[in-house]
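P.,

For your records, the input lines for the assembly:
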Amino acid sequence: GEDVEQSLFLSVREGDSSVINCTYTDSSSTYLYWYKQEPGAGLQLLTYIFSNMDMKQDQRLTVLLNKKDKHLSLRIADTQTGDSAIYFCAEREYNQGGKLIFGQGTELSVKP
Amino acid sequence: DAGVIQSPRHEVTEMGQEVTLRCKLISGHNSLFWYRQTMMRGLELLIYFNNNVPIDDSGMPEDRFSAKMPNASFSTLKIQPSEPRDSAVYFCASSSGGIGEQYFGPGTRLTVT
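Structure tokens returned:
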């Protein structure tokens, strides 16, 4: 079945760039998403990319999509301690009524 | 809009008791998703509805779990009887279609002793 994989942990220094990677298996994905979860809170949509795009930039966030390799990445520029959270990538299954398949989440730790 | 509203935020109950979790969708949204999150299993989709109709309940663990949408803006997830292994954070999320983004509630932390 469809699967989304992420590495579990990433640690960076404040001010550095963070790159969180994700791979997926469903070649018919229409949209791919990045969500952020802070402790004790629900998931919050950060950004999304349509499957016919290669890149999307939104302030400090850059999303890169390599459809051939089924690889998605989220780059956070000038990472701050407030960016410490768990980041989930997700894909929307084609013709599945809006169901999203989530990865297991990457815990980003930003050290001062 | 207040966003997706869940109640209660925390629930502590004894094994065998019935638990009801509640969710209010964002106004105008027509899809509703129930998730469960634990350290061991991560985020799991339990069931989702489109226009009040259950579409996929394959993630519901067993018959002890049931979910309903009595109207277009409200849903309940019931566990009867509850067991310690049901302890988790339960999220609901709603969506209006379009690009398919889901908006999550703050979650209900359930502890079954």
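Two observations worth noting. DSSP finds no helices and eleven strands in chain A. The interface with chain B takes residues 30-31, 33, 35, 41-45, 48, 50, 88, 92, 96-100, 102, 104-105 of chain A (CB under 8 Å).

Regards
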